[in-house]
From TrEMBL:
One of its GO terms (cellular component) is eukaryotic translation initiation factor 3 complex, eIF3m. Belongs to the eIF-3 subunit I family. GO terms for biological process: formation of cytoplasmic translation initiation complex. This is Eukaryotic translation initiation factor 3 subunit I. It is found in: Cytoplasm. Keywords: Cytoplasm, Initiation factor, Protein biosynthesis, Repeat, WD repeat. Its main location: cytoplasm.
């Protein structure tokens, strides 16, 4: 159990090797941890508001944070120094490194008369970032505001998840919409790619998570629960253990005393859409969930401000679906 935040967790993320785990919360200090023993490496100090989203470059050199203090910062992971601070007009909602790590796509909030925007900047020189986006497109008023953002394969397009439940694929060069996937009925809380980048999973307030084909934005599977899903992740071991894990729970304000420690991560079979396991533990809804890149465990961050890192036992690997 990792205790490093004063407020609820907003996002957690492993680096590519899985030896580091990054966590952001509604307090202004993102943390970096060793995932093997839960030791805290340090914090990234500089923001003055909640940190909505984070991402790590593939080589674990750079770390990007988007915050409610209307700025996006790029950090040196090793030293914790802030390499650049990019001021925006509104809060930064989603941030994501491109596969190559040379660009960052980010989305901004719709507030104070400003529209929600999707922007892409070049970060090849992290100490001297040109704040002028290489691609800029207005998300609102035509669509609801964008909350999360992901890069498609080969950095050719980006995919955004929106407040009204649609996901939109944008051409990286022109800023035009390529495809719209409209299956969810309520806000999309989280989007994560599969390990190979061919599928993505969305978690929505409409109590479902859905699996999509990234190339066509075709909805492949739906995982149904009885309460809002805040986060969903796909295992990297798709061939042997095709599982997805969902985290959620009712809104923090609707929680009654009887549900102490009952907020569970739910495991579903990726193909059969069938729930086969639950892991209890959090004292509030799970806000962010992530598989370890080796597929041998997962981590979850909750409204209670704790990050829990789990390792699967032998029963997980021996469990086989009958079909």
């Amino acid at each position: 159990m990792l205790q490093g935040h004063e407020r609820s967790i907003t996002q957690i993320k492993f680096n590519r090797e899985g030896d580091l785990l990054f966590s952001a919360s509604k307090d202004p200090k993102p943390n970096c941890w060793y995932s093997i023993n839960g030791e805290r490496l340090g914090t990234y100090d500089g923001h003055s508001g909640a940190v909505w989203s984070i991402d790590v470059k593939w080589d674990s050199t750079l770390f990007v944070t988007g915050s409610a203090d209307q700025s996006m910062r790029i950090w040196d992971i090793e030293t914790g120094t802030s390499l650049s601070n990019l001021e925006m007009k509104t809060s930064v909602r989603g941030v994501n490194f491109s596969y190559s790590g040379t660009m960052i796509a980010y989305t901004t909030d719709k507030m104070m008369g400003h529209n929600s925007e999707l922007n892409i900047i070049d970060v090849r020189d992290p100490k001297d970032v040109d704040p002028t986006p290489i691609m800029k497109t207005q998300v609102t008023p035509n669509n609801a505001k964008a909350l999360s953002v992901l890069w498609g394969p080969l950095d050719e397009y980006v995919i955004t998840g929106h407040e009204d439940g649609c996901i939109i694929k944008w051409d990286m060069r022109t800023g035009k919409k390529i495809e719209i996937g409209q299956e969810h009925t309520k806000q999309i809380k989280d989007m994560q790619l599969s390990h190979d980048g061919l599928m993505l999973i969305t978690a929505s307030k409409d109590t479902t998570a859905r699996l999509w084909d990234v190339g066509t934005l075709e909805c492949l599977k739906m995982y149904k629960t009885d309460r809002p899903v805040n986060s969903a992740a796909i295992t990297p071991l798709l061939d042997t253990y095709p599982h997805v894990v969902l985290g959620g729970g009712q809104e923090a304000m609707d929680v009654t005393q009887s549900r102490i420690g009952k907020f569970d991560a739910r495991f579903f079979h990726l193909v059969f859409e069938e729930e086969f396991a639950r892991v209890k533990g959090h004292f509030g809804p799970i806000n962010s969930i992530a598989f370890h890149p080796n597929g041998k465990g997962y981590a979850s961050g909750g409204e209670d401000g704790y990050v829990r890192v789990h390792v699967f036992d032998d029963a997980y690997y021996q469990f086989k679906f009958d079909f």
